[in-house]
């Protein structure tokens, strides 16, 4: 709780404010309402010195486990093409990953902050960041990031939810953009994961630092090879601890592997559920599911072939074995 307060996720509510707060939320002590009387979406429940608030889920994979679809929604195909054109528009790009993006968006109005909260040791706290149950947090995140990027030219950046991409033909300008963005992020108590910084600048990436995306683009024949050791790393997942490290590698700032990474996340969730509760070891069948999926004959790398002669833009994503995964735009036979 102290760490959350230090990070600005929660703040104490003064005792004079608690009266206003409690007048707006019914309180149930001891037992919660039964199945026939479920919580409303904004109810505070007190049990001893602790409490919890029943709010609508925002972005919680555990509660949406039965609703997540591994297929790529049609609306996101355009994002794939935009990522491709952004890469080819500039000589250099830089991708940044926000740490717990939905936790970083501040709730501006004090009145809105008072709508969500909890009790701890006779002290009331309220949430100051939007991830904690605000129903429109995806829109709040988008608005916050657009405001964050307002000083920069729209031609030099691209946003796909919480993924930020910067681009420029000049390495110096790109570094200035990156430094300026990080300074604005720090002013808002937002942080990035330095281990997931991804750039096409020479010497910016170290070997093995980007286990999912290793961008190798040959401009002479417009061939982008996306090297990946992710499947190989999956074969080493014998315990819950190693599985956690593997899941943290599912990073796709350009949005090209949304369908693939979502399928892997679902497999990781199944592996955690089936793990031995005493030893923490994974089932052999779950490890095999991570290392090879149905109809996949090559598990090492992917190739993205682009058509530079077509002004409309096109891209085809293949495995090196030749299986087409995604195609969009005008593609030559």
TrEMBL record:
Domain of life of the native organism: Eukaryota
Stored Gene3D superfamilies: 3.30.70.270, HIV Type 1 Reverse Transcriptase, subunit A, domain 1
InterPro entries: DNA/RNA_pol_sf, Rev_trsase/Diguanyl_cyclase
Protein name: Reverse transcriptase domain-containing protein
Species the sequence originates in: Perkinsus olseni (Perkinsus atlanticus)
């Amino acid at each position: 709780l102290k760490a959350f307060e230090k990070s600005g996720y929660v703040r104490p509510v003064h005792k004079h404010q608690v009266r206003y707060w409690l007048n707006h939320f019914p309180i149930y002590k001891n037992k919660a309402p039964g199945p026939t009387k479920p919580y409303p979406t904004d109810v505070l429940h007190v049990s001893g010195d602790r409490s919890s608030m029943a709010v609508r889920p925002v972005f919680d994979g555990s509660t949406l486990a039965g609703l997540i679809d591994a297929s790529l929604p049609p609306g996101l195909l355009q994002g794939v093409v935009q990522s491709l054109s952004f890469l080819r528009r500039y000589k250099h790009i830089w991708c940044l990953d926000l740490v717990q993006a939905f936790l970083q968006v501040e709730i501006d109005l004090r009145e809105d902050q008072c709508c969500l909260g909890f009790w701890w040791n006779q002290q009331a706290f309220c949430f100051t960041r939007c991830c904690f149950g605000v129903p429109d947090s995806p829109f709040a995140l988008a608005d916050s990031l657009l405001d964050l990027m307002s000083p920069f030219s729209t031609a030099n950046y691209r946003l796909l939810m919480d993924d930020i991409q910067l681009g420029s033909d000049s390495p110096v300008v790109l570094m200035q953009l990156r430094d300026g963005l990080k300074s604005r992020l720090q002013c808002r108590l937002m942080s990035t994961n330095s281990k997931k910084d991804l750039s096409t600048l020479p010497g910016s990436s170290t070997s093995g630092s980007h286990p999912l995306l290793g961008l190798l683009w040959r401009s002479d024949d417009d061939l982008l090879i996306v090297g990946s050791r992710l499947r190989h790393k999956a074969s080493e997942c014998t315990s819950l601890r190693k599985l956690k490290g593997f899941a943290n590698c599912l990073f796709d700032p350009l949005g090209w592997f949304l369908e693939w990474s979502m399928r892997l996340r679902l497999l990781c969730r199944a592996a955690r559920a089936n793990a031995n509760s005493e030893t923490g070891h994974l089932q052999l069948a779950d490890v095999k599911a991570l290392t090879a999926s149905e109809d996949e004959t090559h598990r090492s790398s992917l190739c993205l072939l682009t058509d530079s002669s077509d002004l409309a833009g096109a891209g085809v994503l293949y495995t090196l074995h030749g299986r087409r995964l995604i195609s969009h735009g005008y593609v030559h036979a």
